[in-house]
Amino acid sequence: MTDDPTTALRATRLGRRFRGGWALRDCDFALPAGRITALVGPNGAGKSTLFHLATGLLRPTAGELRVFGAEPGSPAARDRTAFLAQDKPLYPRFTVEETLRFGRELNGDWDQAAAERIVRAGDIPLDARVGALSQGQATRVALALAFGKRPGLLLLDEPLADLDPLVRIEAMGLVMAEVADRGITVVMSSHVLSELENACDHVLLLKQGAVRLDGDAQQLCETHVRITGLADPSTDDGLPPALDRAGVVEASVTGRQVHALLRHTGPLPGDDRWVVENPSLEDLLLAYLRSDSTPAPAPEAAA
Amino acid sequence: MKGTLWLAWRQQRALILTGAAVLLAVTAWVVIMRTDMTDFISSRHIDTAGCKGWDGGCESEATIQLLDDTTGPIRALGTLSAALPVLIGVFWGAPLIGRELESGTWKLALTQGVGAGRWFVTRFALAALCTVLGSAVLAALVAWWWSPVSNMLNGLYWHDGYIFNATGPAAVACALFGLAAGTAAGLLIRRTLPAMAVVLGAVVALRFALNTFRSDWISPQLWISKGDASRREIGSGWSTGEFGYLDAAGHRIRIPDACPVDDNLARCMAGQGYVGRYRTVFPSSDFWTFQWIETGIFLGLAAVLIAGVCVVLKRRPLP
Description:
heterodimer; A: alpha/beta; 2 domains; six-stranded mixed β-sheet; 13 strands; elongated; B: alpha+beta; four-stranded antiparallel β-sheet; transmembrane (chain B)
């Protein structure tokens, strides 16, 4: 397989089965290099499994995954990948300085200056024990360890979970600032969709182990519309009769109002009874996250 | 220190320094105690070299006092040395990988520039080196302290558990086995505490089995005394507890008290058709045979366990 420099992470028919069944199945995607990809999905969608496959902590059951063309877990891939696992593991008995030394000793190409800068910017003393740090400080140290590695690909599994709102903003700001001038590819999973909207320019949405949405964030918003209007009495679902039902991601009726989010395929309702607008990324993701569990319209609301 | 060796040192230094301090204190204690003992031996002119076994002539008040004073402390040191493999397995082997898996830090360690192989080999090699050094020092201390009063009267004999399990190459090999068993248990169980319990059980069970079957590995010597001559004294040997009479055809009759040992012994034996008496004994030189057999067993099992650990570490996910 050719090494395409514009692709950071490429999955080909990727699958991973556990005892309980397939965590990921038949996934095909190519995440662009130099971008910040939001990895979105409900719990159990396979997000952590994907991160573990990308770091070589797991091997695929089917298909393959490539990090800049290299097999995850191979020396070439390990050198270029930094991973912040969901539980943000650090050695609690190490000092901050020793934690950075851990990165220096175990990596050939280490940016001590950057790592120390990130730690100092959080007012964390280098001789503090990691076990005594607050959640936010520990996240900062873990990020310093990740950035010190000079990664080409940074994988962040729920980096903002367990953080209070102020620390979340600080942590996101740190990631954005470090990523901006270094061209690092980031893949970040989060449940906080509003925060992803500001940070991410690419989206990969997993659901039940399959890719449901993959693309440039802005393009996705432009190729989808939200329509709102009075339910059309001539159709069961209240949507205009001419509308291509295959493009409907989600539709719901509240009283006589119909809300729907659709892919921009066929003609849109032209009359002024319908309000047509592009969705925000958060609305778009929510619609895709909901679309299986809540098929249009709910019975009691349809009257 | 560089690379993975620095990490191994940083994570094991508390164990290494604690172990070294304890070893140093024990060594000092043994030096003092042994000096007292040799002073006592020379001041009371006890012929320790000529007093091996139960073969009479040595039961002086001084000798009995010597053994009374030294057997307990040497037994305590032997207990420590014999327990060392369990301690190493529980406190060094089980957390070696188990704690990394338990706390999730294995994800940190295995996603850096160095591979899992080097990461494991370095940390295990450091632990194994310390295990060999520590157990060898303790084993040597036991041998050094015990040798002047070895195999004497009611003292400690080479085949006593306090000595046999506490010294020689088998003690070092057993410590390595403990470390390997703990490492494997930590990797397979992924929890430090249950792994500690398992390795405790495994090392104690293997030791118990070896102590039980030790005398089955090789045949004891057959010691025959002709006619009504008294049986050869056991000396430093290890009696199997089997003794009896021989008939003219050379058959052994395992009836210890077929004839009472008194003035009529010869007549009684002649009446039964016995031509001599026998016993079976492991001479003290068999110490080394037993030691090397058990060394081989411990090292073989340790090698199998570590090979298994290496295979499992290559697999993903880790168990």
